[in-house]
Design goal:
By secondary structure, this protein is α/β, with parallel strands linked by helices. It has three domains: 185 residues, Nitrogenase molybdenum iron protein domain (Rossmann fold, 3-Layer(aba) Sandwich); 143 residues, Rossmann fold, CATH 3.40.50; 33 residues, no CATH class. The protein contains 17 helices and 14 strands.
Length: 427
C-alpha cells in the first residue's frame, strides 16, 4: 500500500506515476489466445472439445456441451428460496432502470424539405460470458442478460466454464431470459461465440467480464463481432471524511480488493488519523474474510491512501478515472458534480458500492483501467443499433444536389457526383 500526502514535495509526480502503473494482460497471454482462436476458427467444435479437456479436465461432446432445459429447471429449483427471491428483486430493479433508457425513434422534415430521422433496432444475437471457478456470479448474468432482453435481443447465448453449474447462476439465467447455456469457458468460449462451433451458432456481440484470456480474446475478435469493453481488474476510490465509521470504509475498500490480487482500492481523506483507523479496521476484517488472501495482496500491491483536502478530491478522482467512486462525506453532491471521469458514483455514507453490484438497478459492468475517460458502463444502448433515415422528394433533392456534386468532384469521386448530376439532367 502506498501513502501520498498532498503537502509533500513531489506529490503530483508520485501520484501520477502510481496512477499510470499497468495491471493489464501479459504478452504471453495474448500469444496463447491467438493460437486458441485460430484453432477454433479452423476446427470448430473439435477444437472447443479438445481445449475443454486440456484446460478444464472435462470430457464433453456435441450433446453434453449444452446445458439442457431440464438441468436449468432443476438447478433453478435447487437454489435456496431467499436467493431466488433476491435474484427476482434485483432483476426487477435492473429491468426498471434499463427500461428508462429506451430511446425514441425520430422523423422530421427540415427547411429544405428533406425528411430525416433515425430508428432503433435490437441486435439479433448476443453472447454473454459468465465467469466460473473463483465464485458463482448470478449478478453477472442479470447485469448482462436483463438489459439485452429489455432491448429485445432475440437470442441470448450464455457461456460459462464447464464444471458444477451453481443453482444461483441457473436461477438468474432463467429469471433473465437467457435462451441457451453452453459449458465452455476461456478464450475458446469467446471464439465459439464469434465464429461458431458445431451447435454453438455465432452471435453478433459478446459481453461480460472474464479473466486475462477472455479479455485478450475479446480484443482479438472485435470486428468479427461487437464487444462491450475490455474488462480489467476491479477498482474503487472512496472519498471519506473523518465523520465516517472506519469499519464501514474499510469494508468498502475490501469489497473490491477481494475480487482479485490485481484489483485496486484507494482511500482519499483529509484526516490522517481517520485513515490510520481505516487501515487498522482493514487488517482486522482481513483475518475473517474467506477472500482475505486475495484482498490482502490487492491492498499490499495496488492500494493507496491519499491525504488531501477534500476540495482536491474531484481532480484526483478524474486523474484516476476509476470504475467506482464513493463520496462518503456530508455534502457528496458538491464534490461529485465536479467529477467527469468515473464509471459509477455513489453518494453518501449509506450508498456503498456493493448495492450497485447487486440491487440498486444501475449496471455494474463498468469501464476499468482509466477507460472511464472515454467510455460508459453497460446499458440498453449496447444492445441496440441506430439506423439513419433519409427521404427526398424532387424538390428536396434539387436543394441538396448541387452541393453534393461540388463536394464529390472536390474529393475526386466522379461516380458520386454523377449519381446526383444525372438526376439533375446533367451527363
Amino acid at each position: 500500500m502506498r501513502r501520498f500526502r498532498f503537502t509533500d514535495p513531489g506529490f503530483e509526480a508520485a501520484f501520477a506515476a502510481f496512477v499510470d502503473e499497468r495491471r493489464d494482460t501479459p504478452e504471453e497471454v495474448d500469444a496463447t489466445v491467438r493460437d486458441i482462436l485460430a484453432a477454433v476458427r479452423s476446427e470448430g467444435l473439435a477444437a472447443v472439445l479438445r481445449l475443454a479437456h486440456q484446460f478444464d479436465g472435462v470430457e464433453l461432446d456435441e450433446t453434453t456441451i449444452r446445458v439442457s432445459e431440464a438441468e436449468i429447471q432443476a438447478g433453478a429449483a435447487a437454489c435456496p428460496t431467499e436467493v431466488r427471491d433476491a435474484i427476482a428483486f434485483a432483476a426487477k430493479r435492473i429491468r426498471a432502470y434499463h427500461e428508462r433508457q429506451r430511446p425514441a425513434d425520430q422523423r422530421f422534415t427540415d427547411d429544405a424539405g428533406v425528411e430525416l430521422g433515425w430508428r432503433w433496432t435490437a441486435i439479433e444475437a448476443v453472447g454473454i460470458y459468465v465467469p466460473g471457478g473463483r465464485a458463482a456470479y448470478p449478478s453477472t448474468v442479470l447485469m448482462n442478460a436483463v438489459p439485452a432482453a429489455v432491448a429485445g435481443v432475440g437470442r441470448i447465448a450464455m457461456v460459462t466454464p464447464p464444471g458444477k453449474l451453481q443453482p444461483a447462476v441457473l436461477a438468474a439465467a432463467k429469471e433473465a431470459g437467457v435462451s441457451e447455456i453452453w459449458r465452455v469457458g476461456g478464450a475458446q468460449a469467446v471464439a465459439a461465440l464469434a465464429y461458431g462451433a458445431g451447435p454453438i451458432q455465432p452471435v453478433d456481440k459478446i459481453v461480460g467480464p472474464g479473466n486475462a484470456f477472455v479479455t485478450a480474446a475479446k480484443r482479438r475478435v472485435y470486428g468479427v463481432v461487437g464487444i462491450d469493453a475490455l474488462a480489467g481488474p476491479s477498482e474503487i476510490v472512496v472519498v471519506a471524511d473523518g465523520a465516517n465509521r472506519p469499519d464501514w470504509i474499510a469494508a468498502d475498500l475490501l469489497s473490491q480488493a477481494e475480487h482479485d490480487p490485481a484489483a485496486q482500492s484507494i482511500l482519499i481523506t483529509d484526516d490522517e488519523a481517520f485513515a490510520e483507523k481505516v487501515e487498522a479496521a482493514m487488517r482486522s476484517q482481513l483475518s475473517s474474510l474467506s477472500t482475505g488472501e486475495d484482498a490482502a495482496a490487492s491492498w499490499r500491491d495496488h492500494g493507496a491512501v491519499v491525504i488531501a483536502p477534500l476540495e482536491e478530491a474531484p481532480r484526483l478522482v478524474d486523474r484516476i478515472a476509476p470504475e467506482h467512486v464513493e463520496f462518503a462525506v456530508t455534502d457528496p453532491e458538491q464534490l461529485a458534480d465536479r467529477v467527469r471521469h468515473a464509471g459509477a458514483i455513489f453518494l453518501g455514507r449509506h450508498a456503498p458500492e456493493a448495492i450497485g453490484d447487486y440491487v440498486a438497478g444501475s449496471n455494474h459492468v463498468l469501464p476499468t483501467s482509466r477507460a472511464a475517460r472515454f467510455s460508459s458502463g453497460l446499458s440498453l444502448y449496447d444492445f441496440l443499433k441506430r439506423t439513419s433515415i433519409v427521404k427526398c422528394d424532387e424538390a428536396a433533392f434539387a436543394a441538396l444536389a448541387p452541393a453534393t456534386v461540388t463536394l464529390a468532384e472536390a474529393e475526386g469521386l466522379p461516380a458520386h457526383a454523377r449519381s446526383a448530376a444525372i438526376r439533375m439532367g446533367q451527363s
